[in-house]
Amino acid sequence: MSATLTEKSAQERNKELALSMVASWNRWDLQGITKHWAPDIQHFSEDRPVSSKAMVRAMEGGLAAFPDLHLDVKSIVAEADRVCLRITVTASHGGEFLGKAPSGTKVTWYMLEELRFNDAGQVIEHHDVFNYLPMLKKLGLAPADVL
C-alpha cells in the first residue's frame, strides 16, 4: 500500500512541477522552465527529435513574436512518471512571425505537452504537439476555410 501512496505522491509532485513550468511561461521566464530539465533531456516536437538549444530558440522566438502569450491549462493528467497537459494559448501578434510583420492581432492556438520525470523530479523526456491552424487563419497565413 505504501508503494501506491509513494507513486501517487510522485504523480502529484510531477503535476505541481508541470504547473510551475506553465506559470514560468506566463511570466515569460524561460529559465523557470529549463531549470526543471535534466541535463540529458530528450525533446520531441511533433515526434521529431529537437535539441535543447533548438527548443530554447523556438521558445525565445515564440516570445518575440507573441510577447504577451498566456497558457491556460484546460486539463492535466498524471500516470506513472508522466504528466500530460492540454493547453489553450492566447497572445497578441507583437513581433515578426513566419515573415509577417507584427499586427497586434489577438490569436489562439492549442497544444498538448507530455512530460516524463525522473525520481528526482527532473524532466527527462518532453513531447509537444501544436494546433496552430486557428492562429494561422487569424493572421491570414492559412485560408480561412481550411478545417
List the keywords.
Cyclase_SnoaL-like, alpha+beta, about 150 residues, NTF2-like_dom_sf, about 35% strand, Nuclear Transport Factor 2, Chain: A, Ester cyclase, 6 strands
What share of residues are in beta strands? 35-45%
The best one-word shape is elongated
What is the strand arrangement across the widest sheet? Answer: 2-1-6-5-4-3
**Annotation, overall tally of beta strands:** 6
Continuous helix count? 4
**CATH topology-level name:** Nuclear Transport Factor 2, Chain: A
Mean pLDDT: 94
- Secondary-structure arrangement, i.e. CATH architecture: Roll
Uncertain residue segments: none
- The CA-CA distance between the termini, in Å, is 48 Å
Number of domains: 1
Helix content range of the residues, please?
A: 25-40%
Secondary-structure class: alpha+beta
H/E element string? HHEEHEEEEH
Biggest sheet: strands, sense, closure? 6 strands, mixed
Highest-level CATH class: Alpha Beta
- Nearest-angstrom radius of gyration? 16 Å
Organism: Streptomyces dangxiongensis
GO biological process, one term: polyketide metabolic process
InterPro entries: Cyclase_SnoaL-like (IPR009959), NTF2-like_dom_sf (IPR032710)
Protein name: Ester cyclase
